[in-house]
């Protein structure tokens, strides 16, 4: 599922042709040819990493790393011992495909403001995602924050109607918190502004394949639940 979604984005990435981290042209062809000598792969997306002479590759066989010469191939997570930082498999692919924070279509999100709203964060959530419910408990604790929730309903058959009922309610922010924090089932609502298809397209464009996914103004992307202390680290 992960690789198929990435491959479906190859045309979009190359069409935009503005991301300097995507390896294209002769450089990409040299690496692809060397990889194909050992593996029968159809398509590949190659991106630069923060590690000198190391690239991350998404293919129809999975995600892996390859060095500049195309001789050495690694799979799995990488750990920077000097920075004490983990790079999960797919980290650089996700980072490359993520839209810059200030260019996100916030009109597709439910907006909540705490205090002066100075600190900003965007999250992709499903109404029936267990860890999203847990995450919202932490989001509720944020002071002086603006929270943009992109409702990405894909987990269950009930996700889509619940998302619509919440979005189309008189107060979507309250309806979202009522459900996520208090399990208050949203009333049935319908409207012509429910942006379900646009949010799904946005998620696919950024290779978001699970929830929750958290986006910060420094363009850092976190997949999965984090607590309040982790949020604070991203705003230092």
UniProtKB/TrEMBL annotation:
The keyword Disulfide bond applies. GO terms for cellular component: periplasmic space. Keywords: Disulfide bond, Periplasm, Redox-active center, Signal. It is found in: Periplasm. It holds the Pfam family DsbC_N. Transmembrane segments: none annotated. Residues 114-233 form the Thioredoxin-like fold domain. Residues 26-84 form the Disulphide bond isomerase DsbC/G N-terminal domain. PANTHER family: THIOL:DISULFIDE INTERCHANGE PROTEIN DSBC, THIOL:DISULFIDE INTERCHANGE PROTEIN DSBC-RELATED. Required for disulfide bond formation in some periplasmic proteins. Acts by transferring its disulfide bond to other proteins and is reduced in the process. Belongs to the thioredoxin family. DsbC subfamily. This is Thiol:disulfide interchange protein. The lineage of its organism: Bacteria, Pseudomonadati, Pseudomonadota, Betaproteobacteria, Burkholderiales.
